[in-house]
Amino acid sequence: MSLDTVKNAEQTPDAAQPWAELGLKQDEYARIREILGRRPTGAELAMYSVMWSEHCSYKSSKVHLKQFGEKKPETDAMLVGIGENAGVVDVGQGYAVTFKVESHNHPSYIEPYQGAATGIGGIVRDILAMGARPVAVMDPLRFGAADHPDTRRVLPGIVAGIGGYGNCLGLPNIGGEVVFDSCYQGNPLVNALCVGVMKHEDIHLAQASGAGNKVILYGARTGGDGIGGVSVLASETFDDSKPAKRPAVQVGDPFQEKLLIECTLEIFGEKLVKGIQDLGGAGLSCATSELASAGSGGMRIDLDTVHLRDHTLSPEEILMSESQERMCAIVEPDKVARFLEICEKWDVIANVIGEVTDGERLEIYWHGELVVDVPPRTVAHEGPTYQRPFARPSWQDALQADAPTAERLARPTTGEGLKADLLKVASHPNQASKSWITDQYDRYVLGNTVLSHGEDSGMIRIDDETNLGVSVATDGNGRFTKLDPYTGAQLALAEAYRNVAAGGAKPLAVSDCLNFGSPEDPDVMWQFAEATRGLADACLTLGTPVTGGNVSLYNQTGEVAIHPTPVVAVLGVIDDVTRRTPVAFAEEGQLLYLLGDTADELGGSAWSQAVHEHLGGLPPKVDLERERLLGEILISGSRDGMIDAAHDLSDGGLGQALVESCLKGGRGARIVVPEGLDPFVFLFSESAGRAVVAVPRSEELRFNDMCTARGLPATRIGVVDGDTLDVQGQFTVSLAELKDAHTGVIEALLG
Amino acid sequence: MTTRVGVVTFPGSLDDRDARRAVRLAGAEPVALWHRDKDLHQVDAVVLPGGFSYGDYLRCGAISRFSPVMETVIEQARAGMPVLGICNGFQVLCESHLLPGALTRNDSLHFICRDQKLRIENNGTAWTRDYAAGQEIVVPLKNGEGRFVADERVLDELEAEGRVVARYLDVNPNGSYRDIAGITNAAGNVVGLMPHPEHAVEPLTGPTTEGLGFFTSVLKQLVNA
Amino acid sequence: MARVVVDVMLKPEILDPQGQAVQRALPRLGFTGIADVRQGKRFELELEGPVDDAALARIREAAETFLANTVIEDFTVRVEEEGK
């Protein structure tokens, strides 16, 4: 067996290398040779290939993502911005909150349970690496058709994986989404979000500074997980004495991760760490090059000191391994002993694997031989940038022209017809109760969950004494985005923003997970360009900066891409969580108000899908100033006790919101269709910038005055009453019948 | 002197902070106990909290049962110290043979988290004396392996001796034999409970505050003892 | 009735958290000298008919598609001898 050392690379400049098999382009390989002034060693080639991959380098997307920085709104809230593991936001009282949403789509399709589980593990370590205690998770999910046999394979595994890992970590799962659409059949979207809390002074960054400081790798031992691609290299340089095939699937160990969390927080508590990075995609390659790149000076690593689970691993494989539940810390020499002691206390394996040097190179040794000698920035930050061509798809006009007018799609004209469609929408898997799924997640652990599943946003208390809290909502509508990517992305933000405000919290910041098809398809690239432009513009207007997130491309089967699906998470702060507003209509006699304007907007609506399986026309219009005003009213109303329940209007419109709020509170409602509004449009339109609120009678005057003074249309549409949903002059439906339609749907299909 | 209630943290314990909060809200002093430490630090009672100690690997509670702290807990429990095992803690108590039976995978094969109605069947234990006999309460339940099983003879004995502490009402969420949610030892000082009373102690975060009674009960028991 | 046993184990290169947790606990309980532990599943299938090649082929298929997740697990199929 031969080792490809730097010396060897210098002496054999013409040795053939499998750069193409590793996914590099000819010009990229040439660029690596130019950077190094020689051919790369096998280990170097492995590092560059993985760090310059789409997944790690964002080479197709970064020209568009730049806008999130360029159009960043002025805000004092942002403590750490894009570029770190996750953004950090000031929420007051000395607290900082970090949050991020990320994708684990492809692994979850191959092995649903482990893919989804390790997705949680990865995002939790990102949050931990910022210095924060992870306090909640959420999972926005997209599946193929609910009645498709493969959904039956994929969904239960993914849900069990999320529960199996998240529950075992002791993190409450407080929300998310479950959406079914046949466009996701071969490409389910498994996004995962984590929220973490710390004090300002506890913020940590991923940087290696101070020559002589030690590099400590701790957590699980390193095995051959997730290095399928790099096996090409290994097979050339090593003999046959190892397992034939390296696993592409990583297996998560939530128990190990729980220990890693507690151990790391204790280490932070004693201020033993100068810089820290979690090990995720590209493992040690990524962690060492990013730490060194962001710091001052270089780094020297001895791979022989890495604790291995599989002793046959080659240096290339050790560098690439994506074994889970590992972290890498930079520690001053006099603090190493205490660091290791805390690891021992938590049964966490830890090893000094190298040190920060005063040079400028990342040098990695194996058996005493130099196998990597690179400028770290060229690996971590100076990857290629593509200007991918994009163009408005030829089919876009026809799609938009196919509007769901009354002529095109039959609309109900009788009370019985309206009732039938209301039940169809409420029982469609997209609108039906997801409790069969969400009841597999622990929402109670840590004892701070104030709002969770079935509410507009998930809310947690972060201080027992002051009742300070934060809330998060994630939203994304692939149907809207397909019809108009610019508007669709803005609608995703608007909805998440509205959901946070509906709970009573003030929206502060955004994290996004951009799920798209292949960037090599100009149609998809146009969708991506439009969606990022729309989102960046909207963030600027709403004053909510993007703090981080992730891009997932190549979500397509053959030539067919998924609907463009930007998932937007909005984080909000609430000074007093006891003032939170739930969605449930809980008080008999309270008055129901519809806030905002309702227009005939059914393009991409839940009704057009549930009743007609139709997608065409334009999505609802976006008015961001209106969203902001609505948000302010919802927050003031909550704080001042004028609103006891609020539900944002989105999928399924007012009809669906009434169904959910009535069922959640176990109370009916008497509704009057406002004059001049078509009952069908009133119930099913998905015009943005709207919410329904329940106002105590004693507060009606004050509430009306506030809306009038601020210029927000507020229409009294009824009252909480009885045990039926009674749309007067149209139809009456009992809560029992609604419940029957709305619940049991998912378990009947997938249980 | 305030009553001191210890809450053990095993590797993988999750509801230990919640249990300490419940102890504090009940008016006692919570004391964090560490699995490697045999010393119980003069506590008057012990809570074994929920979670996935040792990842629930091998069998739930099977590895924790052999931790140093359990040696003392087992010894003290036999001597009459009040011990409450919640969820994973219940599993540890069964593995320790302080309580009979075992907890196995839910009959649905899924983890389940729900607000669960219970009936307090025995209000004579150290942990239930603040409840009325037959009182119905709602507290969160969350488990993947919460199905209480035992052979017929043991079940009959538990019933005959009034050692079923709480029973599931309306829905049996995990297939437990005879709807059993919690049991006690013959002396009434050791109680194992699958649902989570520590998550029902504040109106803001719990479905009710009806779980607090377990923690106030032990306080009364100790003060009166 | 004939019994066929299907043993399912995680592939050697796949992390086995359960086995690792058990291995770490063993020395604490005084069981030393055990270098590694891996935990698997055993299925006992009682056949209605004879154990012939066709039956075994069907069981292999069942193991391949259902009992084992061949993305991460290997399996073996063997016939349990009478009287054992």
TrEMBL record, chain B:
Q: Name one Pfam family in it.
A: GATase_5
Gene name in the database record: purQ
Per UniProt, which keywords does this protein have? ATP-binding, Cytoplasm, Glutamine amidotransferase, Hydrolase, Ligase, Nucleotide-binding, Purine biosynthesis
What is the protein name for this chain? Phosphoribosylformylglycinamidine synthase subunit PurQ
Enzyme nomenclature, EC number: 6.3.5.3, 3.5.1.2
> Which organism encodes this protein?
Kitasatospora putterlickiae
Question: Which NCBIfam families does the annotation name?
Answer: FGAM_synth_I, PRK03619.1
What's the stated role of this polypeptide?
A: Part of the phosphoribosylformylglycinamidine synthase complex involved in the purines biosynthetic pathway. Catalyzes the ATP-dependent conversion of formylglycinamide ribonucleotide (FGAR) and glutamine to yield formylglycinamidine ribonucleotide (FGAM) and glutamate. The FGAM synthase complex is composed of three subunits. PurQ produces an ammonia molecule by converting glutamine to glutamate. PurL transfers the ammonia molecule to FGAR to form FGAM in an ATP-dependent manner.
Q: In which pathway does it act?
A: Purine metabolism; IMP biosynthesis via de novo pathway; 5-amino-1-(5-phospho-D-ribosyl)imidazole from N(2)-formyl-N(1)-(5-phospho-D-ribosyl)glycinamide: step 1/2
Q: Which PANTHER family match?
A: PHOSPHORIBOSYLFORMYLGLYCINAMIDINE SYNTHASE SUBUNIT PURQ
Give the quaternary structure: Part of the FGAM synthase complex composed of 1 PurL, 1 PurQ and 2 PurS subunits.
Q: Which CDD domains match?
A: GATase1_FGAR_AT
Query: Where is this gene product found?
Result: Cytoplasm
The record ties this protein, via HAMAP family, to: PurQ (MF_00421)
Task: Kindly identify the residues recorded as the active site.
Answer: C87, H196, E198
Automatic annotation (TrEMBL), chain C:
Instruction: Write down the EC number.
Output: 6.3.5.3
Top-level taxon of the source organism: Bacteria
Q: Which GO terms describe its molecular function?
A: phosphoribosylformylglycinamidine synthase activity
Q: Where in the cell is it found?
A: Cytoplasm
InterPro entries xref list: PurS (IPR003850), PurS-like_sf (IPR036604)
**Enzyme class at the top of the EC tree:** ligase
UniProt feature coiled coil, ranges = none
Q: Which Pfam families match?
A: PurS
Q: Does the keyword Lipoprotein apply?
A: no
Could you tell me what reaction this enzyme catalyses?
A: N(2)-formyl-N(1)-(5-phospho-beta-D-ribosyl)glycinamide + L-glutamine + ATP + H2O = 2-formamido-N(1)-(5-O-phospho-beta-D-ribosyl)acetamidine + L-glutamate + ADP + phosphate + H(+)
What keywords would UniProt list here?
A: ATP-binding, Cytoplasm, Ligase, Nucleotide-binding, Purine biosynthesis
Query: Which pathway, per its entry?
Result: Purine metabolism; IMP biosynthesis via de novo pathway; 5-amino-1-(5-phospho-D-ribosyl)imidazole from N(2)-formyl-N(1)-(5-phospho-D-ribosyl)glycinamide: step 1/2
Instruction: Decide whether keyword Ribosomal protein is in the record.
Output: no
PANTHER family assigned: PHOSPHORIBOSYLFORMYLGLYCINAMIDINE SYNTHASE SUBUNIT PURS (PTHR34696)
Q: Which family does it belong to?
A: Belongs to the PurS family.
Q: How does it assemble?
A: Part of the FGAM synthase complex composed of 1 PurL, 1 PurQ and 2 PurS subunits.
Give the protein's function.
Part of the phosphoribosylformylglycinamidine synthase complex involved in the purines biosynthetic pathway. Catalyzes the ATP-dependent conversion of formylglycinamide ribonucleotide (FGAR) and glutamine to yield formylglycinamidine ribonucleotide (FGAM) and glutamate. The FGAM synthase complex is composed of three subunits. PurQ produces an ammonia molecule by converting glutamine to glutamate. PurL transfers the ammonia molecule to FGAR to form FGAM in an ATP-dependent manner.
What HAMAP family does the database record attribute to this sequence?
PurS
What is the designated name of this protein? Phosphoribosylformylglycinamidine synthase subunit PurS
What is the originating organism of this protein?
Kitasatospora misakiensis
